[in-house]
Amino acid sequence: MKMKRILLLGGTGDALRIARQLGAEHVYSLAGLGKVPDDLACSVRVGGFGGSEGMARYIEGEDIGLVLDATHPYAAQISANAAQASRAARVPYWALRRPAWQPQDGDDWRMVGDWTELTDALAPFRKPLFTLGREPLAHLDEIPPHQFWTVRCLDAHEDTPRARILAARGPFTLEGERALFALQAFDVVVSKNSGGNATEAKLEVARERGLPVVMLRRPELPAADREFERVADLLEALQAAD
């Protein structure tokens, strides 16, 4: 794809789909978590920028003409830095805003805004499944005496007497989630409202089993010059801008 040089901020499956359409002159930037792709035509940059000012300097120094934000919906600080850096460097800032999941009939969602609210909501339960990423790993010494946690995240980590750590990367199938839930007998699921279908199966299994879901609210994200809900729409817009 030929156009002004793109800085693609990624780390999600959606971002990788976009990166696979970019030519050698463009840059795919990753924070460094998880697997770094080695089969892309575009350049891959790993690591931070040093806040919005550092990103603005990078944009100007690398002659970037468009910033594409395809980070996770909960990567609020990265998105804020990207929006500010784009304004400072006077380049367009486009964002892929994946639609949030919506509760369906039979769902029992308990919405929370932060870790304190989350732990309060979990107080009645004994065997939660955490699907929040790495954050619960910082709280393994805070597990209440009546609870045993299962934490699913990208990071490998030793189990503890009070927690099981499952290092796994989506997408997760409905059959696989059913088997996991049946084996571990979770009584509550803890989730971010990530949207998309890669990790949605856990919500369907929770619905099937009548389990509540403690759902972390999405953070507020900065407005973009153009926002897209689907990768296909963003790629079409890039093609039209060629």
TrEMBL record:
Quick one: which pathway? Answer: Cofactor biosynthesis; adenosylcobalamin biosynthesis
Q: Name one GO molecular function term.
A: precorrin-6A reductase activity
Looking up InterPro entries in the UniProt record yields:
DHS-like_NAD/FAD-binding_dom, Precorrin-6x_reduct
| Keywords of this entry | Cobalamin biosynthesis, Oxidoreductase
Q: What is its EC number?
A: 1.3.1.54
PANTHER family in UniProt: COBALT-PRECORRIN-6A REDUCTASE
What name does UniProt use for this protein? Precorrin-6A reductase
Which classification does the entry list for the species?
Answer: Bacteria, Pseudomonadati, Pseudomonadota, Betaproteobacteria, Burkholderiales
Gene of this entry: cobK
